[in-house]
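Lecture notes, unit on protein representations.

Consider one protein chain, 128 amino acids long.
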Amino acid sequence: MRHLGDLNGAPGAAGEAAAAPRAYDGTGHRLLVTGHLAAGDLVVELSAVAGPADAATLDGLAEALTAALDELAEHCARPGAGTVSPSDFPLAGLGRDDLAAFLTAVTRSTSADAAGRDSDADTEGTPR
C-alpha cells in the first residue's frame, strides 16, 4: 500500500506545504493500493496494474479492506489502546522520561478538572 499523506495542502511539520505525490505506475505488482487523506477522510483506491481485473475480486478486496480498517479504527478508539513516543513530537525535544512526566501531569490535571466539575453539580447534574 502506498500512502500519499494529506493532499489538502496542509503545512508539513516544518511549515512547508505538503508535497505533491510522485507518480507510480505499480510496475512489478498486480494490484496497486493507494491511500491519502482528503477533507479529513481516508481515501483508498484499488487499481489493477497488470492485466484486466475481475470486478468481483476487486469488490471483495475493497470490502475486506474496509472491514479491516473499521476493525482497526474501533481498536484504536478503545481506552488504553494507544501510546506515544518522543518521535511523535520531534519539535518538542523531549526524551522518553520527559514525555512520561508530561503525560502524567496532563492526566492528573485532566482528572482533577473532571473531578472539580463533578463536585460543582448537584445530584441531577445541575450546577450549584
